[in-house]
Amino acid sequence: MPSPTAWRDIGWRAENPYLGEIEAIAALAGRRGAYALNTSYEWCCTCGVGEDPQGGVRLLRVLDWRQSGLGRALIVVWQRGPAGDFANITWPGFVGVITAMAPGRFAVAINQPPMMSWRLSPPIDWLVGRVGVWRSRDLPPAHLLRQVCETCASYDEARQRLLSTPLCLPALFTLAGTEPGQGCVIERTQHCAAERAMPAAAANHRVAVAERGRAAVH
User: Fold this and answer.
1) CA angle 151, 155, 70 (to 5 degrees)
2) Is the pTM of this model over 0.90?
3) Is there a contact between 88 and 96 (Cβ–Cβ < 8 Å)?
4) Phi and psi for 143 in degrees, rounded to 5?
5) pLDDT tens series, the chain, 218 aa
6) Chain mean position to CA 2
7) Cβ-based neighbour number of residue 61 at 10 Å
8) What interhelical angle do 155-164 and 141-151 show, nearest 10?
9) Is there a contact between 96 and 139 (Cβ–Cβ < 8 Å)?
C-alpha cells in the first residue's frame, strides 16, 4: 500500500482538482486512510436503469454489500458546479461521486467491475493493477463522475464524457436522463468503452467489454 506521500504524488501527476480537499480531510482526520479511501470504490453496489412506469426514466440503486455501517453512515450532500446543483449520496470524507442526482439533467452511479487479471494469484493481480494506477496521469472514476456532475449540462454531454475520458481504473457507469429512452450502462476499461442501452443493470460484471478479469474479493 503506498504511503500518504505516494498518494499525493499520484494526485499531482493527474492534476487532480480535488487533491486539496483530500489533503484537508487527511489533516482533519489525523490518521492514515484518506488518500486510499478517495481512490477506491470497492464498496459500490448493484444498479439498474429503465423506463419509469410513471413516466420518464428511473435509476435504481441498492446497498447490498454486507459491510458494517455502510448504510448507517450514508449522507446526502447538496453540491454545486458550473452546470448546476446536484445531490451527492456519499459518505463523510469521500470527495468523489458514487451515486448522484442532478435535477433536470441526469442521475448517475458507479460500480466496480471485475478486477483485471494477468492469470496470477488474486493478491498479485491486484498489486499489478495498482502499479498501473500509481503511474497513471488519469483521474479515478469517482472523481471523473464528480466532474461530470459539476460541468455537464445534459444527459448527452455526460454520456460522451463517461465514454471518452481516460481513466486510471476500469469502472461501470449507469446513467439516466430526463427524456424517454435516455438511459444506459457504460462499461469502461482504461483502454476502451462499450455501451448497453436500457433496460440494463450493473453489478460487478462486464457484458459488452471482452476483457480478462476475476471476481473482486471483499
Assistant:
1) 75
2) no
3) no
4) -80, -35
5) 445 555 555 554 557 899 889 999 999 988 888 887 887 776 677 899 999 998 899 999 987 666 666 677 889 999 999 999 999 999 899 999 999 999 999 999 999 887 666 666 666 666 666 666 667 788 889 999 999 999 999 999 999 999 999 998 889 999 999 999 999 999 998 878 999 999 999 988 888 776 656 566 54
6) 21
7) 18
8) 150
9) no
Cis peptide before 17, with omega less than 30 degrees from 0?
A: no
Q: ∠ CA(12), CA(13), CA(15), 5° rounding? A: 60
C-alpha cell at 69: 455501517
Class of domain 42-202: alpha beta
What is the residue type of 63? Answer: L
Indicate the residue type of 83: A
Query: Exposure of 33 by Cβ count < 10 A (0-12 exposed, 13-18 middle, 19+ buried)?
Result: middle
Domain ranges of the chain: 42-202
